[in-house]
Amino acid sequence: MTRDQARDLLNNMMDSPALLRHCRTIELVMEAYASKFGEDPDEWAIAGLLHDADYDKYPDQHPQVIVNKLREMGEEKIAHAISAHYTKWGVEYTNNLDKALLACDELTGFVYACALVRPTKITGMTPKSVKKKLKDKNFAAKVERDEIYKGIELLGVELDAHINHIIAVLEENKEELEL
User: Fold this and answer.
1) 101-115: b (≥16 Cβ within 10 Å) or e
2) Which pLDDT tens digit goes with each residue over 4-52?
3) 97-101 contacts: CB < 8 A, separation 24 or more?
4) Per-domain residue ranges for the chain?
5) pTM (global) more than 0.90
6) Contacts 24+ apart (CB under 8 A), 81-87
7) How far is CA 22 from CA 71, 105, 121, in A?
8) Which letter does DSSP use for residue 92 in this model?
9) Which letter does DSSP use for residue 173 in this model?
């Protein structure tokens, strides 16, 4: 699957501008992580882009609709990673792609939310300010902190380094992401 094919698939399955932007942020963060892990940047970016592709129109069936489509297309590795991007689904984490998608999804959304409430948005953001917001259970209350910490543990990265990675990617793309 090419990125253009993945974008077409996403755009056919999703209408929400906020969810489209979320998928794009995960695409960017995953692509950047692929380079750090010596993995295929296109594969990792596509997994990030499509991880919530069915959530807009099929929230009760998420992620099975997109997982099934990907399996039909022969994209088993990406399908498996997407099927594992929430620990409570009970899917085994077999490689770094699976672990990175879990580690990046909730925390990237959280960092984005943190940036939105700052006067300077993403510019000048530090891990310290993100960790302070993580402790505030009322801020972005729907973000499951346990998913963030489990993803970081599985991927084997340190919290500050992981947050710095996400901040750097979002800052590099701040105009597109409206940050």
Assistant:
1) bbbbbbbbbbbbebb
2) 999 999 999 999 999 999 999 999 999 999 999 999 999 999 999 999 9
3) 97/39, 97/43, 97/44, 97/47, 99/151, 99/154, 99/155, 99/156, 100/30, 100/33, 100/37, 100/44, 100/155, 101/26, 101/30, 101/47, 101/48, 101/51
4) 3-172
5) yes
6) 81/47, 81/51, 82/47, 82/50, 82/51, 85/51, 86/147, 87/146, 87/147, 87/150, 87/151
7) 23, 9, 16
8) -
9) T
Written out in words, the top-level CATH class of the domain with range 3-172 is mainly alpha
Omega cis (within 30) before 63 = yes
Residues 140, 129: Cα–Cα separation, whole Å: 14
Instruction: Report residue 20 as tokens.
Output: 């489209």
Q: Say which residue the tokens 């950047």 belong to.
A: 32
Match 């099975």 to its residue by tokens: 64
Q: What is the spatial distance between Cα 135 and Cα 126, in angstroms, rounded to a whole number? A: 15
